[in-house]
Amino acid sequence: MSPSPARITAVDTYDIRFPTSRELDGSDAMNPDPDYSAAYVVLRTDAADGHEGHGFTFTIGRGNEVQVAAIEALRGHVVGRPVDELCADPGTLNRDLIGDSQLRWLGPEKGVMHMAIGAVVNAVWDLAARRAGKPLWQLLAGAEPEWLVRQIDFRYLTDALTPEEALTILRRGREGAEERTARLLERGYPAYTTSPGWLGYDDAKLTRLATQAVADGFRQIKLKVGADLDDDIRRCRVARAVVGPDVRMAIDANQRWDVDEAIRWTKALTEFDPYWIEEPTSPDDILGHAAIRRAVAPVKVATGEHAHNRIVFKQLLQAGAIDVLQLDAARVGGVNENLAILLLAAKFGVPVCPHAGGVGLCELVQHLAMFDYLAVSGTTDDRVVEYVDHLHDHFLDPVRIRDGHYLAPTAPGFSAAMRPESIARYTFPDGTFWAADRDDTNKKGQAA
Amino acid sequence: MSPSPARITAVDTYDIRFPTSRELDGSDAMNPDPDYSAAYVVLRTDAADGHEGHGFTFTIGRGNEVQVAAIEALRGHVVGRPVDELCADPGTLNRDLIGDSQLRWLGPEKGVMHMAIGAVVNAVWDLAARRAGKPLWQLLAGAEPEWLVRQIDFRYLTDALTPEEALTILRRGREGAEERTARLLERGYPAYTTSPGWLGYDDAKLTRLATQAVADGFRQIKLKVGADLDDDIRRCRVARAVVGPDVRMAIDANQRWDVDEAIRWTKALTEFDPYWIEEPTSPDDILGHAAIRRAVAPVKVATGEHAHNRIVFKQLLQAGAIDVLQLDAARVGGVNENLAILLLAAKFGVPVCPHAGGVGLCELVQHLAMFDYLAVSGTTDDRVVEYVDHLHDHFLDPVRIRDGHYLAPTAPGFSAAMRPESIARYTFPDGTFWAADRDDTNKKGQAA
Hints:
Two copies of one chain form a homodimer. Chain A is of the alpha/beta class and 448 residues long.
């Protein structure tokens, strides 16, 4: 009798919230007080190797429990799957999750339900990379083009990208990969930093952090804008004076404006030579981004962290709406959908500068950018991954930044796993941090 | 001492599921086995009048519990609000819910979280109409244009529709409203029926139901297509033969196709003179719909039941992507957002033919169509509301259809309230129906 194959035995979820709103870290024109949070999932197996798969959706606080409920709604699709089969072909699970007709009604392919799929699919990739003993970027870059193409759901894409075209891009992308791998391992992947530019920081803190960013080797910083034009003019002037003319300075409105307002406001900041204007309006407004791009050139238009699926990215590219594509590792349906998005960008010749920050997004997305460099676009020209210096210490394999570059992760997996003690402390509402916080509040209430 | 004003005291939620998959009612190319469900909400107050506000999101089964969790995440915004203020200006709550920055991250304005907002906002309108002693269509049609404009969140719309333009449309819309009201009360609002056309029905059932539809006075039917072209050709031929050349026959692919496939398939059915092709591809694919429309004319292109917010509708209109706009009462952020969508359609001169069916969608959306007739578009030409003969008996104020028309509701409210006994029976998983069903399954298991 042959032993039964190892299977997924549990999909465990955690509602993890960090009290970031108390420091105004992460404050911008639309998000004044985020509590960076993760709807976190662990896939457990009965395999002898003991490996787990970790994944999460990033949220900013309230509603994280809804995101957890959505991940739990996927449990039935995952528990019981043979681990070998699952890790050899995550695309099948990806298609099953996206294709569940009853759950699909809750999107389709957008919002809470789609992000839940992304968390679970990313956890499968984490597991697959751990079992392969490789960091995810390396697993992907070493995979056969034919296999990568099979990982992608081309539904709704074929008017812009066919499987045959994707295969051609991936075959071409392998040329010179060895040399690029050596360069990546030596130098890392270029980063830019948003740390100086949060809206809640005063000019002194902005000056200090921008000076530090240049000293740390970053060649691009980013400032949040969009709440008050006079403030933005002052802050852009301060930042440009600090970093000098040669360091790129992006600005980010976090969806604050209507189309006409975006054009006016961006033009009013053009004297400070912003490199791109990010999220000038609703992430759903493909035609609006195209109109803004036509009006504000040569300032580039960037968006994508809230673009909810490959079909939105397809249209942003078809409409000529963006100069810079900002994919996010945990907004869409996971690695499989991001493979499609990277290939779409390559087809249209638009550089990918991934969104990161939040909690754990840097840890995840570096793998996708490195894969893109090694196997898709083949270049880091005009490409940078966002970096924010927040909350990395909660991860078992935190990002490493040197001289303005992400160093390539070497540990097996997707760098997604949080430290068990961080999970225990920040689980909401009963982790030790939140329980103590509640006790404090109650005591203050009684003393008053 | 003045008495404190009446307030919202509770936001009660119910996970209600009907076992419709057992009859293949509602089966289409993407949704083979829906269990029509409602994430249902009741607002309770401490007002002496005892009125409640009822609302819901329609889903098709699994994940309805996620939708309920999302409604519960809104509770803190609603409980404690003074009822008079809330009902005098639902727009303020609507903006507060959409503007909650932490919850907004889960969309923004799309999917589970946005539909939850729609359920709560619609419940407020139900409450407001009950307290006013009017059916909602009448409350809206009698409201001042200035007040209606204030109910709308124009964010992201002003490049296509300004508040001033909306006001002009509404002022013009009032002309002749008295005469139209009399006609509406006498004749009703034209409907079309999808009842004959579900994909799971055989030709005999299709023939019987299509014959019945024409006998019942409907001037338009709809057939589901998209699973198998030969089947579709046969079913379209059967249906066209039954209804004759003068009854309109729409076809509905429920998002089954890619762009090129949609064009090929629709052209292959053109000989049967389809009036419109509905949801030919992804509801997110604005540019795709535009390409399909250019290719399949004179067959019209219709979509909207899954368009997730006003920004998508704005672009469908700007891109010339649709001939027919199919708003849904419970997909977007409630009545307030649908006011914006009706005004956008009027601005662009595109007829609105609302989506209905499911559970309770007919009950809700008739109010919006009647308001559009009386106060916005001023016409029913080329306008029909979908009608499906399912599950109406679970509602306290069910739709009434006569000679292919929706008769105007006369009871105060939004016709949203389900019968208490239906709620008790079909609440999942512990309502009497589901509990008995589980017992049956267990007994069969033991007997086997």
